[in-house]
Amino acid sequence: MIPPLLDDTVERVVVEDGCRIAIRTLRTGSAPIPVLFVHALAMNGEMWRRVAQKLNVDAPLYAIDCRGHGESDRAAGPYTTERFAKDISDVLDHLNTRQVHLVGCSMGGTVALAFAGRYTERVASMTIIDSTACYGEDAHISWDERALRPRQEGFQAMVPFQVSRWFSPEFAEQEPALVQEAVKVFLANEADAYAATCRMLGCADERHRLSRYTGPVSVVVGEEDYATPVAMARELVSLLAQAKLTILPKRRHYTPIECPGEVAVAIDATILRG
After folding, report:
1. Strand runs (DSSP E) across 131-250, as ranges?
2. pLDDT tens-digit map of 83-121
3. Which whole number is the average pLDDT over 148-155?
4. Closest Cα to residue 218, out of 182, 250, 255?
5. Which of 234, 54, 16 shows the shortest CA–CA distance to 26?
6. How many helices (H) and strands (E) in the chain?
7. Taking the domains of the chain in order of start, what are their residue ranges?
8. Quick one: pLDDT at residue 7?
9. Does domain 9-273 have CATH number 3.40.50.1820?
10. Who contacts 179 (Cβ-Cβ below 8 Å, separation ≥6)?
11. 158 in Cβ contact with 150 (< 8 Å)
12. Is 215 helix (H, G, I), strand (E, B) or coil?
């Protein structure tokens, strides 16, 4: 029998450089290898709760709040994917677990890929959702522009554009409460931490390390994801030895929120392969 989800249970772990990283325990479980979820830019670990409800694996489920996000410290930048990967390693040490089933969406997927390329032996399986290993050779330019927007315009002014990228129009119309939950989290961000994270993503390129990881991978992407489109997902599949691709029709960038059941099916299948 799969145990129920827990209410919001958060503890903070002090990692190597003194930053406090929040870990949300979503569920306990009897399997020896836990699942660790890594959230998207400007979100937090709560974005995984609906996916966690639908998982069939009897494993402990944890969701990290990356530095600069949620209930973790808003540590000063600059940020790097290497630093975020080390944060995950320190969190796993705190949890006293050698391996993990790693799940990441958008920024969280890029961080998961960074972790898998550096701590290969600690990854039992990996599910990468609506993400990429590299946004492109000139991505730092557009990400630098994006980093400045909260100071120039304010987070509130960015909301219509963000919602149109995150969710299909049908979902936004049918599930306004879920959309507003995501917007509330987005508006709680701090401009400096957001900017540091944007610049990190603009410089990220994990492609050259991906051949080091040869375990099971699912790459999941919304068919209408304009932030990390299907072409980026196909590139990931070409770089990962055991990757399988799932394209979710008519979905956009935040598929864990928009279609948690379909995402959970992909995660369950990947864990079974591990």
Report:
1. 216-222, 242-248
2. 999 999 999 999 999 999 999 999 999 999 999 999 999
3. 96
4. 255
5. 54
6. 11, 8
7. 9-273
8. 77
9. yes
10. 163, 166, 167, 171, 172
11. yes
12. coil
